[in-house]
Design goal:
Two copies of one chain form a homodimer. Chain A has three domains: about 10-270, Bira Bifunctional Protein, Domain 2 (BirA Bifunctional Protein, domain 2, 2-Layer Sandwich); about 285-395, Rossmann fold; about 400-465, C-terminal domain of ProRS (Translation Initiation Factor IF3, 2-Layer Sandwich), CATH 3.30.110.30. Chain A is about 35% helix and about 30% strand. Chain A contains 14 helices and 24 strands. Chain A has helices at about 10-20, 35-55, 70-75, 75-85, 110-120, 165-185, 230-235, 260-270, 295-310, 325-335, 345-350, 370-395, 405-415, 425-435; strands at about 25, 35, 60, 65-70, 90-95, 95-105, 130-135, 150-160, 190-195, 205-215, 220-230, 240, 245-250, 250-260, 285-290, 315-320, 340-345, 355-360, 365, 400, 415-420, 440-445, 450, 460-465. In chain A, helix 9 (about 295-310) links the parallel strand 15 and strand 16. The model of chain A has no long low-confidence stretch (mean pLDDT about 95). At the A-B interface, strand 2, helix 2, strand 3, strand 4 and strand 5 of A face strand 2, helix 2, strand 3, strand 4 and strand 5 of B.
């Protein structure tokens, strides 16, 4: 690699996706890259961890069809306004034109909710909490970027149904908590921000987003949680009988994390040598590199391979006995982001020792007898350092400024998030957008702070602004 | 339930899919049912076991896009002839007509192989062995049936690239071995059959299929393995340099197992009470049912729940303390197919005992102290009986007959597979098809047996015929 990601992030990102074999962008449909094995395994482990958290919190896993009939898709007016320009249409089966053409789901509210109307009849059927990990589709016309903006989006989306607005609001809080716990596992710092009305999910009452910062200082939305109120329930007739036998419209929430969350892990933690992956999602967790000398390969392999076999029972390990110099192997596996490396030559092995190195540079000579029990400690040490670096970068990129000139000069110096004021008008948002800024919204826990608008100077509320992907 | 599956299989199958909440067929697109949580968890565990086997045998997991440009899709002539009538077309993004319209992949040869041409350059890049677990799409015009024939098919497909025809042939053998091991895990009996030319995969040199029998005696194809030779390599320009630096076309294989494999597990093992699931894929493996008496609920729960918590560390367990009679709970979880049940009242618990029952009716009073260590034995006993029943049914539905009249009368009595002769002509196949029979092909291991054609009486080869789904 040898590219510093700060200052050259775009170049760094493209190069690492190629070198580490995350995606292949040569697939002949715009915005639909191939997920290569290293990338897809990582993505898969990433979403499996999310699924575990959702399972623990009472969600059921299922799968809805990819195709939604136009007549069903068009029922919730605001939602459709938000999506209809940007969807892909299936119009033909073989040579035959379909009577009701089909949308490739851009998100699954409109496929799931007609069926939820059949599943939810009584207050006892709620809460209904389900999720699917699958692909959704957008007819993206802007520039695409692998894992960040594309026409095929791999994600996990959860959908819930509740009796009351309050129950759904509590579910929103639970979802924010789950997502916060999830990203904390990977050391990704974020703000929880309530989106302004013009940027909430089409059809939602309100939307919370988790926003992190990429190394270029631009903000990346890595999770969203929506309170849908009764809007979809009214459009799709999701009604239940309450305890008195009266029919009521249900309240709903939906929330999702896409491949962008995985992109943030790559971007936030990588360095000039390549990726640095959190232990739990790395396709290979420990790489073993034998150090041969004077043709003692068999002897070294005999001893080191036994250790590799033992650790392979608990961890995803690779034994790299390729015909390459150790330094080249180190370089390769560092670039791939593998958290731990065990290396040893005959002298070490005879003394009952190996060298355990992590991807942030901690290096320890360890007794073979205690190596296995050392791994959890080594992982903890590695991730502590990795996550602290990310936190330090993040914290140093949140600033405070008033007035547009000041905001611009602060952003020029520091990028990232800026706390400022906004009057709530779209005119002032449009002015911000001219400079690629956007009002991301109000930080959770800092609602109600009064502050003068960054553009017009009128009284407004404190908001976070930034330059989003 | 209370429906005998033999004699009423179609009715049994529809009812169990609904009652056990496997799929919801009310989704408003023909042939695209919703996979409900119980069904999708089962399907997911099913494919995860297959993925483990593929991983163990050196396959990499990845994911290709769902959409294939028409211009790319059309390159392999035979393949296209086999599929082009039956695909779904994406023609529009928003209001805009796409320049190169897109096929929803009916299978992924044509999406993967142009990219394989970029990945395979030298003989050292092979074997390339990859798989994906995903959905594929067909514009099915025949009657659809959930998990058996539909427009959205959930499956695992593997694709490999090799230097020579022989290497690819060996890979075909490995795949047949992996698939055989896989279905053996679930106690599904099958024949490995080489399909006749008219029924091989479009574009393949030859195809092996694994065929099982459903309870109505019709055969179900649950896995296929294709030797693709150089045909696709020539169409998509997959070339490598051999050790002498000469350019050669690669040889390829592809193989897949779809949701049909899961359907066979449901159909083959179910009984008049409902499903009987193999332990490893059951969404719930052990259900705990407390037997209350005279309001001693708390006391019973206190003791039994502790056991449940302990076993939940190793198994997927449910503690059913719903306000229902024990008999109703038994009935419900039996219908769902849960392999093991632990029940106990205060008298048992005070004596340090619980009752362990399995879904085939074995019942044992077990000391709580040894319950955990008893589980693997109980699973083995349960599956032995379950799998033996399936084997007995299967074996008793393979017959031998010559001459069409005899074949018809044998089939009327016994259904299943019939060993007979076939001259190789399409005329005789057409005659068989008039009666819903088909030539499934030649059993692996029984090639070269000479036998008179069941229709025309001319000399031919031994084949298996049956009535396939």
């Amino acid at each position: 690699m040898k590219i510093a990601k700060v200052g050259n992030f775009s170049e760094w990102y493209s190069k690492i996706l190629f070198d580490a074999e995350i995606v292949d962008i040569r697939y002949p449909v715009k915005g639909m890259p191939v997920y290569m094995p290293w990338g897809f395994r990582g993505l898969d482990y990433f979403f499996r961890e999310l699924e575990k958290l959702l399972d623990k919190n009472g969600h059921d896993k299922l799968l809805f069809p990819v195709a939604i009939p136009e007549s069903i898709f068009n029922k919730e007016a605001e939602h459709i306004k938000g999506f209809s320009d940007g969807v892909l249409w299936i119009t033909h089966g073989g040579e035959t034109e379909l009577e009701d053409k089909l949308v490739l789901r851009p998100t699954s509210e409109t496929s799931m909710y007609p069926i939820f109307a059949l599943w939810v009849r009584s207050h006892e059927d709620m809460p209904l909490k389900v999720y699917q990990t699958t692909t959704v589709y957008r007819h993206e016309t802007k520039a695409t970027r692998p894992l960040i903006r594309g026409r095929e989006i791999y994600w996990n989306e959860a959908h819930t149904v509740h009796a009351t607005f309050e129950d759904a609001a509590k579910q929103v809080d639970e979802a924010v908590k789950i997502y916060s716990e999830f990203f904390a596992m990977f050391g990704i710092p974020f703000l929880v921000i309530k989106r302004p009305d013009h940027d909430k999910f089409p059809g939602a009452e309100y939307t919370y987003a988790l926003d992190t910062l990429m190394p270029d200082g631009r903000s990346l939305q890595i999770g969203t949680v929506h309170h849908l109120g009764e809007k979809f329930a009214r459009a799709y007739s999701i009604k239940y009988s309450n305890e008195n036998g009266e029919k009521r419209y249900a309240n709903q929430t939906s929330y999702g994390i896409s491949m962008r969350g995985f992109a943030s892990v790559l971007g936030v933690h990588g360095d000039e040598k390549g990726l640095r992956l959190p232990f739990v999602i790395s396709p290979v967790q420990i790489v073993f590199v034998p150090i041969y000398a004077k043709g003692n390969n068999e002897e070294v392999d005999g001893k080191l391979r036994a250790i590799y076999e033992q650790l392979s029972k608990s961890y995803r390990c690779v034994y790299d006995d390729k015909n390459k110099r150790p330094g080249d192997k180190f370089y390769y596996w560092e670039m791939k982001g593998v958290p731990l490396r065990v290396e040893a030559g005959m002298r070490d092995l005879s003394a009952g020792k190996v060298t355990l190195t992590d991807r942030v540079g901690n290096k320890n000579v360890v007794d073979i007898a205690v190596l296995e029990s050392e791994i959890p400690r080594a992982v903890k040490e590695y991730e502590k350092r990795l996550f602290e670096e990310a936190r330090a970068f993040f914290d140093s990129h949140i600033s405070d400024a008033d007035g547009f000139r000041k905001v611009q000069s602060v952003y020029e110096e520091k990028n990232g998030f800026i706390r400022t004021g906004w009057c709530g008008s779209m005119e002032c948002v449009e002015r911000l957008k001219e400079e690629a800024f956007d009002v991301l919204g109000t930080e959770r826990g800092r609602e109600g702070h009064v502050r003068k608008c960054v553009i017009c100077g009128k009284e407004g509320k404190e908001v976070i602004i930034g330059k989003p992907y």
